[in-house]
Amino acid sequence: MLEEMQVFAAIVEQSSMNKASAVLNLSQPALSRKIAKLEEELGAQLFRRIGKRLELTRVGQITYDYALELRKLHRRYITAVSEHKESGRTPLTIGASLTTLQTTLPDFIQSLTAAHPEFDIKAITGKTHEIVTLVRDRKADIGIVASMIEDTQLTCVPLFEDHLLLVLPRNQVVTDRGKLTIQDLNDMPMILFSKGTWYRILTDELFHKYELQPDVRMEIDSFEAILRLLHTCRAATLLPKSYLRTQLLDDNDLAVIPLAELEETKRTTSLIHADSASAGPVVRRWLEELPRFLSGGYT
User: What is the C-alpha separation between 207 and 231, in angstroms, rounded?
Assistant: First the structure.
């Protein structure tokens, strides 16, 4: 069908069977046979004749839009094959939301390159809705976001569930009443992630639910910077469990305080991708391997 689609698109763009015949170096009867074959497969007319002019039917317009998408995909495929033949490498663009950039992406890339050393990985960062758009528009091959995505154009694969934890300097006295409760976050000096991110939305929802008003000293986009500033500012923070490795806490002399209410702040980190048929052959094979890859773990 690809050849018939190319012929059909040429006729639309030339607005004439004669002109398309010259451009494609095919006889007009041959063009007519290909269009007739395509119409037979579709079960619908693509053109209607108005005098000497050809006009697209509604099905014809839909088919032309599809033919343009096929042309783009074919060019992308040829480019990918050419790049692979020249370098023996396969480009893979990963979109990562701001939070997953610091929590999930480093380990994910490490595991991915170990399994597929032929990948040349490029990362693009942004807010979750920006990553969704990049993947939908085929500007990123896959995306990693801290949420489940419902989009008819995308496949969403859950990776793991995460929730927030309270972190503070080990030598900081935060209460004289023994075990901490969620209400102890009232007036507590805190450094939080910037507004607009998924984890800050979770944090604000938590504060609203329990009517908490912490003393927010700073809002920063970097988890690492937040951890390094906790001692200086004598402040606490709320960070995702997936980021808080034991070595990281020890290096910064920090402690995690368990609060049952924080387990309500669950968020599923997911991998998203568009229709695998539109990806290059190597990336498509990797997407087919994805369930087995994930079952092996990477965190």
Answer: 23
